[in-house]
Each structure stands twice: as C-alpha cells, then as structure tokens.
Amino acid sequence: MRILLVNLYYPPDTSATAKIAQHVVEALREKHEVTVLCGRPSYDPKERRSWRLWRKERVEGARVVRVGSTTFSRHLMRERVVNYLTYVALGVPTSLFLGCDVVLAMTDPPFAGIAGAFIAMLKRRPFIYNIRDLYPDMALGGSLIPPGILSRVWERLHRWALRRAKRIIVLGDDMRERITEKGVEAARVAIVRDGVYAPAVRSLGEPPDENVVRAIRGDSRFVLLHAGNLGFYGAWDTLIAAARILEKSDPGIALVFVGQGAERERLGALAESCKSVRFLPYFPASKIPSVIAAGDAHVITVKRALQGVVVPSKMYETLCAGKPILAVAPGGCDAARIALQRGCGMAADPDKPAEVAEAARILASDGERVRRMGQTARAAALDYDRLRELSHFVAIVEEAKSA
C-alpha cells in the first residue's frame, strides 16, 4: 500500500510531531511504501535547505518530498503562520503528482487536517486523520484567536474534514470524547497513545548525571518538576500561586520548570519574588533521563478549557522512570484519570491553588507513598508500550484502505 503522510515538520526538524511522524513512518515502512509531504526544516533544525519549489530526499530510508515553504523562526507567531500558509499553498498542488492509496494527515500546521481531507478528496483516496492537538479548540482555549468569524469558519471546515475521515486517530479518552461531541460516530474514532518503549521500562539504565540533578534540585527537600514546553495549555498561574502558598508553610518544597515556551517570560515575571519557583532551560536530549530522575514528582498540567484538546505525551516518560505524577488538570483529563485509577499519582483542580499546594504537601510528607506510587507508575508504563501502540496505528491505516 502507498501512504501519503501530510505534516509540515519532519526530521531534521525537532518538533514533537516531527519525531512522532518519524516513528509512524518507521512502523508503516515495514509493510508499506510511505511518502512524507513536508516543508523545509524550520523548527530549530540542525540542518537547513536552500529554496526550491520542491525536492526529493531520503531520510533514514524514508521517501521525503519537501516543498519550498518559508523558514521563519517559530518563536514569532505571524511568521510561523506564513510558514504554515506557504506549506499548504505549495503542498496541496504538489500532492497531486504523488501516487498514493491513502492520505494520512497530522496537525502541523493546525489546519493540516483540512488540507489532508482536501487532498484526499481531489485524489479520491481514503483519508485518515491523526489528531495531535485539536484545533480550532486549542487556539480558542489558549486565547490565541478570539471568538468570531475566523473561529467559526475554521470550525466548520474542521468538521467537514472530520466527516470525510474514514478513521480518526486520537491520543486519549478525553480527546475521543471531544471529537464525538462534534457529531462524529464513536466507531470511527480510535485511541492510539504515544506511549513509551517497553524495554526502557524494564531497564533502570545508567545512573543519573549528578550535575543535572544538582542543578535541578538545589538544596530543596522535595522537588515538584515540570519538564517540557511552557505553552498556552497549562494552568501555570495556579501552579505559581500554589508555590507561594507552599513557600510560607513548607519552604523546602520547590517548583522547578525545565524548558521554554510562549509563556516562559510572563511566568518568570509572575514568579519573580517567589524563591521556591525556579526556571531552567532545556538540557541536551541525552540528559532527559537525568532530568526526569531529578524530580520527586512530576507536574502534568492542562487548564480547564483544554481537556481533550491537548494530551501531554511526556507523562509516559515520567511513568517509565518510576516517578509519580501530580495532574493539575480537570477530572475528565486523561492525566488525572490515569493518576487516580492506576494509583500512580494525585490530581488537583487547575483553578484551585490551595488544592494543588495540599497535594504537593501530602506527597512531600510521605516518602513511602511516593515510593509506592513510583513503583505503580513503572508497572503502568508497560501498558502503554509504544511498539504495541504503533502496531495498532498501522492496523487502523490498513483497515481504512480495505473498508
């Protein structure tokens, strides 16, 4: 079977969807021919490409067609939108010259699903939609765009894309519920989680880098750690307000953020006078296990308007490392459900700082409880084996072609 994968980012781009797209391609290529339709590297790439209308490449054995999209910095929203628009403007006509039996679209750019559905319609091929982030819900919930004609038109086009999809692949139960609320039949929506490689769960690996651990922990007795993007989806203000409560009652508890993102500068200013909150930049990828090991518990956060719209995938790495999670998220959010149902963490209301502070206080005061939760987390990670999830992904694509 010939599969056309539509996504702006692909290695050497370093975005999350680029890496996931690569995993998907590796799984599909075992039986099928895959062509990736992407743009020029622009997401903090190690390599650049000179401009051409389009070019063919081989990336680790995969066939890649790159159109001549712009490569402005992703840190500036207006310029990032230009990257999106030039990719779609060049990608749609280019796709007409690429043979395929199935069109598979992800969500980079945020309207890639609409473009993928349009390509599938023009080529009269089945369309499969892998939703990584749910738009325009995320743009509205994150206050990236105001309610109005743009959001209404975007939502109408997105629902058209959802109706055209033979199968819709989402990241969790909460996202599945969001999709079915839009009138999509539940039978067409499948859950495939990002998961984590099971061999990593079974192996304790090398001891953590003491320098990384020391940089993160400082002299804190208990570290509540958030490692990842500081984007628009998190209940950041609630976390910092909780840290202020803890600073007065339990000064040994620290809230540490490792990463960057659109909210980093604002949060730094918000927490300026709070000594128990610290911000650190990303560490090299090789140090990620050490970063995870440095925290006593890890924060997974989704603000109320965005449950089922974004699903933090770093949760699975945390479980794999045997670390409990504190889900600062609505009760229906996947992270909160997994933490409570599997017994590998706690959950707190994303609008109630006092509740977050109390949960942190309970964890910091009960080392045995944290240890048991960590053991449970490692056991739970085995149920989210990435290879098994990718096998499920491949089966869905194959079923869509034969349906």
Write a structural description.
There is one protein chain. The chain is an alpha/beta fold. The chain has two domains: 2-195 and 385-402, Glycogen Phosphorylase B (Rossmann fold); 198-384, Rossmann fold. It is 43% helix and 17% strand. The protein is built from 16 helices and 14 strands. Strands 3-4-2-1-5-6-7-8 form an eight-stranded mixed β-sheet, sandwiched between helices. Strands 11-10-9-12-13-14 form a six-stranded parallel β-sheet, with helices on both faces. The longest helix is centred in the first third of the chain and has 19 residues, at 77-95. The protein is globular, with a radius of gyration of 21 Å. It starts with a strand and ends with a helix.
* Low-pLDDT runs: none
Question: How many E strands?
Answer: 14
Main sheet? Answer: 8 strands, mixed
Reading the helices and strands in chain order gives EHEEEHEHEHHEHEHHEHEHEHEHEHEHHH
Overall mean pLDDT score?
Answer: 92
CATH architecture descriptor text of the largest domain:
3-Layer(aba) Sandwich
Output the CATH homologous superfamily of the largest domain.
Answer: Glycogen Phosphorylase B
Q: Structurally, how many domains make up the residues?
A: 2
In the CATH hierarchy, what is the class of the largest domain? Alpha Beta
CATH topology of the largest domain: Rossmann fold
